[in-house]
Amino acid sequence: MITSLSVSGFKSLESVGPLQLGSLNVFIGANASGKSNLLEALRFLQGVSFGFTIDEVLNGKPKTAASEVWEGLRGGSKQAGFKRPKGTASRPRFGVELRTRSHRSIHFGLQFSPNQRVVVEESLSTGPRPVYETATLKQDRTTRTIQARYNDPEGKHHRLTLDASRTVLAQVRNSLKFDDQDDELAEECAATLGNVQRLDFDPRVLHLYSQGSTAQRMGERGENFAAVVAAIKKSKDSYAAYLDWLQQLSPAPSDEVKVLEGACGEALFALRHGGNEFPAASLSDGTLRFAAIAAAFFQPSMPSLVLIEEVATGIHPSRLRLLLDLLKSQAEATGT
Ligand SMILES: Nc1ncnc2c1ncn2[C@@H]1O[C@H](COP(=O)(O)OP(=O)(O)OP(=O)(O)O)[C@@H](O)[C@H]1O
Ligand SMILES: [Mg+2]
Fold first, then answer.
1. Does pTM surpass 0.85?
2. Where are the domains of the chain?
3. Does domain 197-334 have CATH number 3.40.50?
């Protein structure tokens, strides 16, 4: 889990943090106050931890055999650095504290240049002990390389010359010269930063059939929502808890959640009430949003971090407290 986050020089965030993060974090603020930009900072860290280049993370990357389409950040590399009025853009800097499953704390720091799309400075440490850090002076702009320093288990110093267009983190993993334990730390750091699910539900997607019959995780706009609900229904306890939240949250009465099957086994969400069945196509946008947000917290495969944009959209103020209760209790129960 990410326990602390600092961001500076990134988009509208001149200097933010360190923010101490808990299992549920709610960002409230006026329009253009930087809420979405903060979530973009986490998406940036997700992209680099996948091993994508800085350019790919900022400007997007098409689907390949090894990875899905990666949508770049809003405004791409041109808007990534904080812009002062009439000034030059800053080089964004991130600092993240993580706590691993084995209760070790990791600090990951990264600074990059949006113009050159290269890493400028990077470090990984656990407690006071550095795992690696970059030698900033030895950076070579023409060859776009960066040097990383680290010690092996015998305390011998090493230097690695690496590609500056992606993070050291993505390149040192499984490096044979690396200490096994440090290798594991780098692995855990990348896995935690990468295991992020952004949800920005689109009611038009929620109204539709899912592609498959069951799914372990939902897509960003709510793709596969019904297929995830079908998977939730396979566990009696999860389904009972899910239905209970839905009955409390949703203004639409429901005795049962149904997953209807299309001609090819595709799943469609439906609610049953008073002996009638209401398929997703006929349910209200707000009802579907409730059902999808709640389902996100009962997914069979939970990510380490769920980011929800505009969680209150379409939800009546009288239900907001209940929605927060759901998010809080499920975040604690699932460790997400
Ligand atoms: N590189 C940059 N330098 C300075 N400001 C920037 C930069 N890129 C974007 N901004 C500013 O960030 C603001 C948008 O921030 P953001 O999208 O995070 O707002 P928000 O809090 O999510 O607002 P809303 O509630 O409307 O969604 C805009 O005012 C935009 O001009
Ligand atoms: Mg926003």
1. yes
2. 2-194, 197-334
3. yes
